[in-house]
């Protein structure tokens, strides 16, 4: 092998060994999407279902999707000590869905099937995504079991709220597969979900705003809302009550239990934040709002060209929108926000020949008066609409810390770490 080939091989990380555990619940079909997602990124996936899970999704389906044999018992492949080997070789274990029964067996240290035995020997990160009826989730036994699992270093995700089996609706729904995969990948990369925001109310703005010129045209930007929703996801998983004031956003999964307040314009967002920020513990302004809006909005579509007359599109008069971040800081200083919240701003900067993006962010932090400011460089192919982010967190005391490149879920965890630490300090 030549040196160039050796260098290329050495620089490529080996595929991860991921175990996808599946318990016997109606949401077991979503595990198929989780397996597919891990396989598409080059991971080696082994599906380990319970016997009950195979009542919902057949063995052949899991084998076809994973490319590996499927077994439920400790008595298969005894010659290779499979009931020990699968867990020992795992880099990450994701159980989705996890039933109340399975979590109870894990707490007791049972090893009576392959999945339970795998967990007994595993030393890698374990992520459990529960799915069950609301009454089961809130049952004191389940609550105690979840607390025990978390105390042992196992990540137990908060379930989503929504339609359950039958006509029931409430907390207990399995999160969307993409949410589970994103969180699991972040946890494998080192993200932790401490329950340090339990009982805290969080208000987050997300996405872009649309400032309408006429019924069919508007001034906007490329923001997808991914960072704001990722912030909501991490806050919810850390125990917070989350409200997201969402402008124009992509098709994104709602964080566990979050309230979504849809808005269109910057004025709409200003009014929604004014209402929901009153009793918030944390306020994060992650939206990419328009600084200006048309002075008048035409009631019918404007024309273009020489025949348009006074209704031409050639000139649009603009007026300044309210500054949501600055006015929220002012309201806090006047005592209008009951909990004296930590306020986090965002600075989407490009920098120029004379001034860096970070220097512009320092000026913005000083001008706005918020506690923390997340600065990221934006531009073509950067941040907006992307799944990754990076930058710096500046604080009101003059501190600066780097936000290392990672998924927006990972970046969100870094931002919340900084916000919680700032509040505690």
UniProtKB/TrEMBL annotation:
The keyword Zinc-finger belongs to this UniProt entry's keyword annotation: no
The EC number(s) this enzyme carries: 4.1.1.36, 6.3.2.5
Name of this protein: Coenzyme A biosynthesis bifunctional protein CoaBC
Domain Flavoprotein: 17-182
Organism: Corynebacterium crudilactis
Gene name as annotated: coaBC
Pfam families the record matches: DFP, Flavoprotein
Primary role: Catalyzes two steps in the biosynthesis of coenzyme A. In the first step cysteine is conjugated to 4'-phosphopantothenate to form 4-phosphopantothenoylcysteine, in the latter compound is decarboxylated to form 4'-phosphopantotheine.
Keyword Ligase set for record: yes
Signal peptide: none
Keywords annotated in UniProt: Decarboxylase, Flavoprotein, FMN, Ligase, Lyase, Magnesium, Metal-binding, Multifunctional enzyme
Region of interest: Phosphopantothenoylcysteine decarboxylase: 1-201
Matching HAMAP family: CoaBC
Superkingdom of origin: Bacteria
């Amino acid at each position: 092998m030549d040196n160039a080939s050796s260098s290329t091989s050495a620089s490529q990380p080996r595929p991860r060994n991921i175990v996808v555990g599946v318990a016997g619940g109606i949401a077991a079909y979503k595990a198929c999407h989780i397996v597919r997602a891990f396989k598409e990124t080059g991971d080696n996936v082994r599906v380990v279902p319970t016997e009950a899970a195979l009542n919902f999704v057949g063995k052949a389906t899991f084998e076809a999707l994973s490319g590996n044999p499927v077994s439920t018992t400790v008595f298969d492949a005894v010659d290779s000590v499979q009931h020990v080997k699968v867990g020992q070789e795992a880099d990450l274990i994701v159980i989705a869905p996890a039933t109340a029964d399975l979590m109870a067996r894990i707490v007791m240290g049972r090893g009576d099937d392959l999945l339970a035995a795998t967990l007994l020997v595993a030393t890698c990160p374990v992520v459990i995504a529960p799915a069950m009826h609301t009454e089961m989730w809130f049952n004191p036994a389940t609550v105690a079991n979840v607390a025990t699992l978390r105390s042992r270093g196992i990540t137990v995700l908060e379930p989503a709220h929504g339609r359950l089996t039958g006509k029931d609706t409430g907390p207990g729904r399995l999160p969307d597969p993409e949410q589970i995969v994103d969180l699991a990948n972040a946890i494998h990369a080192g993200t932790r979900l401490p329950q340090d925001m339990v009982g805290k109310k969080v208000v987050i703005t997300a996405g872009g705003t649309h400032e309408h010129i006429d019924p069919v045209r508007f001034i906007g930007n490329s923001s997808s809302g991914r960072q704001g929703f990722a912030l909501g996801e991490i806050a919810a998983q850390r125990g917070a009550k989350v409200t997201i004031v969402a402008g124009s956003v992509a098709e994104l999964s709602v964080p566990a239990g979050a309230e979504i307040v849809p808005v269109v314009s910057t004025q709409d967002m200003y009014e929604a934040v004014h209402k929901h920020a009153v009793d918030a513990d944390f306020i994060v302004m992650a939206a990419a709002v328009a600084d200006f809006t048309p002075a008048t909005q035409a009631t019918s579509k404007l024309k273009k060209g020489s025949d348009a007359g006074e209704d031409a599109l050639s000139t649009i008069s603009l007026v300044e929108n309210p500054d949501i971040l600055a006015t929220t800081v002012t309201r806090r200083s006047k005592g209008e926000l009951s909990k004296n919240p930590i306020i986090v701003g965002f600075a989407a900067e490009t920098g120029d020949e004379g001034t860096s993006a970070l220097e512009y962010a320092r000026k913005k932090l000083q001008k706005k008066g918020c506690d923390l400011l997340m600065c990221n460089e934006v531009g073509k192919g950067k941040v907006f609409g992307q799944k990754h982010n990076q930058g710096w967190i500046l604080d009101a005391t003059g501190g600066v810390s780097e936000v290392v490149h990672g998924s927006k879920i990972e970046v969100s965890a870094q931002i919340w770490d900084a916000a919680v630490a700032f509040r505690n300090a």
